[in-house]
């Protein structure tokens, strides 16, 4: 039997180069290998955990993410692309799994803690919903929606619903996958072997695992606005590349430049097909005599060669949004059948299928 892949993205914006090298390329390669049944999820329910007051943003970006998927080569004939909220079994599985993981375990997950801090919820002075039941030692999290804090458990439901063996993810999501491992182990120990423990797959190239933003920040992020999007036109791409963070002390062409922390060279390491040329540019830059503009122009050429093909295919697909929604509807129907079967097995293992003969 083929192994199963489950992966996906939150529809909070268009996808960027960080998604491309961090996960999307892996998904396409695994899909095309013919060795896997691939499920690709648009995680709209997870997106609503921190966008509850702006559901239109999530709804609009479902189409954008689907377009990005198809443009990079995810094929609905080989992969089942579906929308999370259209699979009722996922919510019920999440509820059962929440009883197997402590609140403190979820809140000390490093990925969750980092995201809460980035959003400023840990310093919030206001409650999302005011409650006299809030206890003193939870004040650091009082602005955090409960659904957001629980999203690692929701991800465990997503993964196990399709009995995924392989989960292609970015490196930052590894702590979240560890909670899935714990849920599976605890569930199987209590109720009998029912769930499958997945393996996380990250890119082999270390630099691809966490592509920095164009501003030099540690990670390219939709929320930080420091990304190059797969749908960016040439002029937008050029503007972003020319504004990229390099070596702040490399003021004159004759100055010796530093490679470490220089985002332009990091991108060339990841994307340039001619690594011998990159090595020559690095050597010249470090000894002096090579300006940032020359290096950036080469990077622009490299990135445009990749993105122009994606951009062209995406623009063609965008002319028929109805066809995209039809594809998502069919994918969701197919995914629903699989998840419902897993839910039945989970309910039977727990003992809540009361009316079966």
Oligomeric status: single chain
Query: Quick one: how many beta strands?
Result: 5
Can you identify the CATH superfamily of the largest domain? HUPs
SSE string, helices as H and strands as E: EHEHHEHHHHHEHEHHHHHH
Largest sheet strand order: 1-2-3
| Number of domain modules | 2
Helix content: 40-55%
Query: Structural class, from helix and strand content?
Result: mainly alpha
Rounded to the nearest angstrom, the radius of gyration is 22 Å
Structure description:
- By secondary structure, this protein is mainly α.
- The protein folds into two domains: 3-210 and 320-350, HUPs (Rossmann fold); 234-315, Tyrosyl-Transfer RNA Synthetase, CATH 1.10.240.
- The protein is 53% helix and 7% strand.
- It contains 15 helices and five strands.
- The chain has helices at 17-32, 44-48, 55-72, 88-98, 103-107, 110-119, 146-149, 151-161, 174-191, 206-209, 234-242, 263-271, 275-287, 292-317, 321-350; strands at 3-9, 36-42, 79-83, 166-168, 199-201.
- It has a three-stranded parallel sheet. Strands 4-5 form a two-stranded parallel sheet.
- Helix 9 links the parallel strand 4 and strand 5.
- 38% of the residues are buried.
- Mean pLDDT is 90; it is low at 127-139.
């Amino acid at each position: 039997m083929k192994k199963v892949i489950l992966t996906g993205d939150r529809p909070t914006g268009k996808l960027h180069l960080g998604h491309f090298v961090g996960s999307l390329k892996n998904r396409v390669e695994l899909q095309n290998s013919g060795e896997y049944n691939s499920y690709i999820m648009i995680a709209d329910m997870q997106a609503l955990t921190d966008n509850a007051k702006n559901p239109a943003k999530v709804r609009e970006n479902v189409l954008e993410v689907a377009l990005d998927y198809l443009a990079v080569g995810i094929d609905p004939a080989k992969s089942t692309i579906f929308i999370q909220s259209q699979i009722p079994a996922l919510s019920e599985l999440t509820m059962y799994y929440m009883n197997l993981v402590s609140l403190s375990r979820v809140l000390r997950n490093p990925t969750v803690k980092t995201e809460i801090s980035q959003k400023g919820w840990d310093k919030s002075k206001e409650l999302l919903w005011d409650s006299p039941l809030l206890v003193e030692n939870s004040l650091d999290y009082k602005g955090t929606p409960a659904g957001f804090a629980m999203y690692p458990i929701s991800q465990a439901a997503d993964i196990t619903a399709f009995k995924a063996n392989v989960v292609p993810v970015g490196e930052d999501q590894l702590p979240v996958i560890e909670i899935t491992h714990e849920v599976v182990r605890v569930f199987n120990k209590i109720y009998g072997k029912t769930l499958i423990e997945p393996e996380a797959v990250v890119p082999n190239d270390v630099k691809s695992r966490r592509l920095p933003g164009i501003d030099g920040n540690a990670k390219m992020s939709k929320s930080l606005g420091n990304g190059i999007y797969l749908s960016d036109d040439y002029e937008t791409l050029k503007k972003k590349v020319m504004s990229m963070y390099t070596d702040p002390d490399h003021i004159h062409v004759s100055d010796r430049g530093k490679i470490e922390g220089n985002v332009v060279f990091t991108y060339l390491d990841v994307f340039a097909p001619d690594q011998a040329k990159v090595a020559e540019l690095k050597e010249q830059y470090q000894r002096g005599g090579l300006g940032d503009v020359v290096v950036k122009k080469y990077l622009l050429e490299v990135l445009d060669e990749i993105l122009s093909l994606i951009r062209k295919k995406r623009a063609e697909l965008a002319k028929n949004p109805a066809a995209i929604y039809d594809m998502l509807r069919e994918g969701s129907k197919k995914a629903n059948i699989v998840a419902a079967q897993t839910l039945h097995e989970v309910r039977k293992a727990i003992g809540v299928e009361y009316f079966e003969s």
